[in-house]
Amino acid sequence: MGTQKKTSTERVEARRQLAAQLHETITGKVDALTDTEQWAAYLAAAAAFHSYSFNNVLLIMAQLPHASQVAGFRKWQEQGRQVRKGEKAIRIFGYSSRTVTETDPATGEENKRKVPTYPVLSVFDISQTDPIEGHPQPEPIARRLEGEDTAAILDRVRDIMTAQGWAVTREKIPGEVNGYNTLDGSRRIVVDADLSPAQAAKTMIHEAAHAVMHAADDVNPAELHQGRSEVEAESVAYVLAGLLGLDTTEYSIGYIAKWANGDTAAVAETAHTVLATVHTLAAALDTHIANDAGAADAA
Questions:
Q1: 17: Cβ–Cβ under 8 A, 6 or more apart, which residues?
Q2: Residue ranges in the chain modelled with pLDDT below 50
Q3: Where do the domains of the chain lie?
Q4: Residue 1: what pLDDT?
Q5: Alpha-carbon distance 209 to 90, whole Å?
Q6: pLDDT tens digits for 25-42?
Q7: What is the pLDDT of residue 216?
Q8: Maximum Cα–Cα distance across the chain
């Protein structure tokens, strides 16, 4: 007696269970990473960098969309990196204050008070710097993937996003950023042209996840928490790639740990949103594959 084929409903339910299992593995792997010397070294390096306000993040992204880590000229030197000659500075607003003296017209008394000021500062992205010879550099906690995209993940996800009105391109991106998308209404997704097929496939899912979760008309960019949105997008990439046979552990776990600050509870809190997005993209892939098969049969 032959093996009975699973129904469409059974296949979807099996995929849901596997996706949930894959998401559960993230917390254990993040826990394991945060017990290593590599994580301690990363934290020490990260502590030297300033966190920027949401408005300054918007300014940075408007001037250099692929920016990933910014600091002032001298701060980069302190970290063993030199801003390259001729690089254009990114302009942001700093915060300071000045003391003013005011005279009360009724009493003639002088009162002093502090007035906030917002001087324009110049910062540079890590992609605009080079390591200073002899200065140790921290070991990356997220290693780019090597290998092939045997399931044609990039092409299939690109087709889905193109059908939804996104322009998807492969372009050279300076520095360590693998891809980015624009949430300003221009609906562009860019994946670095020099990535391995496996890394490009994972990055395509990551950027598609951002587009699905964080670019909707009813999402207010000012309310987005960058750390949470990056955890969500990379978790989608890890789970969906895993469903399609691509293990992205070497890159995804370090990336998720970094943006979650090693907090596994924060990772677990994203489960509902992550799995809903995984199922949305997986269903779109099912339709895309079925359409391809139908077109092939008709040919």
A1: none
A2: 1-2, 293-299
A3: 8-50+139-294
A4: 45
A5: 28
A6: 999 999 999 999 889 888
A7: 64
A8: 103
In this structure, the number of other CB atoms found within 10 A of the CB of residue 20 comes to: 14
How far out from the chain centre does Cα 111 lie? 48
Residues 186 and 165: their CA atoms lie apart, in Å, by 10
Q: Which two tokens stand for residue 148?
A: 């092939």
Give the pLDDT confidence score for residue 114 in this predicted structure: 85
Helix residue ranges per DSSP H, the chain: 8-33, 37-46, 54-63, 73-78, 153-163, 197-214, 226-243, 249-259, 264-268, 271-298
The one-letter code for the residue type at 237 is: A
User: Coil, helix or strand for 116?
Assistant: strand
Q: Which of 263, 271, 212, 211 is nearest to 238 (CA)?
A: 271
Instruction: Round the CA-based radius of gyration of the chain to a whole number and report it.
Output: 23
Cα–Cα distance between 264 and 280 in angstroms, integer? 24
Tokens read off for 241: 């790639």
pLDDT of residue 293: 47
